Amino acid sequence: MTTRSVDRETRVLEIIETARAKRPRFRDERITLAHGAGGKATQTLIEGLLAPAFGIGELADAGVVENIAITADGFVVKPLRFPGGSIGELAVNGTVNDLAMAGARPLALTLTMILEEGLDADTLRREVEAVARAARKAGVTVVGGDTKVVERGAADQMYLSTMGIGFVDPRAELAPHRIVPGDRVIVSGPIGEHGTAIMLARGEFDLDAELQSDTRSLWPAVEALLQAAGADLHCLRDATRGGVASALNELMRAAGAAALVREADVPTTPIVRAASELLGIDPMYVANEGKLVAFVAPQIAGAALEALRAIEGCERAAVIGEVAAEPPGMVLVETSFGGRRVMDQLVGAPLPRIC
Amino acid sequence: MTTRSVDRETRVLEIIETARAKRPRFRDERITLAHGAGGKATQTLIEGLLAPAFGIGELADAGVVENIAITADGFVVKPLRFPGGSIGELAVNGTVNDLAMAGARPLALTLTMILEEGLDADTLRREVEAVARAARKAGVTVVGGDTKVVERGAADQMYLSTMGIGFVDPRAELAPHRIVPGDRVIVSGPIGEHGTAIMLARGEFDLDAELQSDTRSLWPAVEALLQAAGADLHCLRDATRGGVASALNELMRAAGAAALVREADVPTTPIVRAASELLGIDPMYVANEGKLVAFVAPQIAGAALEALRAIEGCERAAVIGEVAAEPPGMVLVETSFGGRRVMDQLVGAPLPRIC
Q: pTM of the full predicted structure?
């Protein structure tokens, strides 16, 4: 989650070389927490092992088969409950958001629970109810699932796993390769709230602040964008693990384009800013659970922003930058002081079990 | 997995009372391994907590929304590898089989992995390849997934979770309520192989035998049955956790009918019989991963059986009994000695982490 300060030209060139290189190979000998953190190690695992094994081409959080979007998600957040939500809500919203990012109206989901022997039944009941409530709110049906129990110590209370399906909206033509130079980059609201709320809930730093996770369904936001921009909406991504920085890096690599972000235009809240400063982290790398990044054609950016701001939870949506042709695969940030730095992919696993 | 010997009339009546009673309530204070074992505790959890919370009516392993069958499965089998398969194969076959039981041709699946920090990369690679291979064999596409990593000790090497979707075959009219008195009960081959293979792999008893798990895709078997019987095929269920006995009990409760099984007609192998005798267990309660139970109208039973036997892995399919009107919700077994006993639901968790 920490950004590495990069001011030497050589370093920039080295990164450009990496970004231009072919698919990474998965060479690690053991799995580390970094493989689950959404950064470079995760990418190596996915692009180097999983995608070739399953013959998956363009990577996204949802696959599309015959106009049906399908997504899968695992949830291992710790603690199970945190200000603004819990693992149950996260499971529903995380799943419907992956569908929404594929331009699909969420329809149904399944829920698989891996429970630890000895789990308090009230905790289970509470999370089942959280799932049911979030599903009603998001307008999806829980159509089934599976429950497995493992011995005491073989899991950490409960892990949830969901799969969702939805029908792709006929107006949606969303894909990383549709991102083109000139596109405006929009974020749907203040960033870094979920990850910061989890850190606060874990008591990892001494900051007495009221901060809630931003967990919510993003389908209403997507629907508003599709209505306003149609095919001029080029790509969507929810900025979960690894934050906005990771979403931008992944998409720029896939699109072979560059993103230029103006730091001063990125919406944040005072609490997230204070917490980030205290820990020396960049909120751009902190997880969100109810924020999206949208790429829209320049002529429609104003209308798209207006439509988005009318949606609950997106009132502070903003254009934070634009897409350029060069250097391909890179994300550059214009700092508030007028400098430019590379916003690289996340390395390591500073905050495991964020979702 | 052990059957309780029941020879007193009072016990039979008591069970009939229970079967006729309304939905169970989930009253347990803590989760135990029994909640994941596929027997009574699992049923209480599902019918008493999950189904009401999610508004799910008739229970099956796959839900159907607008002609799309959807299923979810979790896999926590221990050991990860066993004769005849591994967790990766199990994940694919278990998922496509749930779809097949809904009469749906499996189309695509997603894979979520919860990995333990420190997991050997070769183990991961091997299971990813097992998933890819089983998927190709079953004719399904792995369209995506999710990977989470938890700390050392917070999971047992790896848990897998899948979701599958498929299109319901237009010939299929399958539901527990279609089971009617007179229906013949078919099993697709020798029972108890998966569970016994797992027990052998765990070294839990001293029996030097070559036994392989029966893990395989059952869609070819279902297609053959649909072709032969059409709408006269009334219901299907794969006999996984809790074995054939649990599948029959669940379906008889749902159908409000009785099943009468002739023990002598149930196909088994010498190794499974020997292992069962040694442990004092009944193979009817032992898990299968490539066997189904089918309910067909009597006039078509011969043709259905013949069609089934032409399919690889189903050569020893057999009619093992029939459906009666009374006593509703019960499964009765005619033993080889001519006696009758109740084949009740599984109580407790004799073999956790079987799948």
A: 0.83
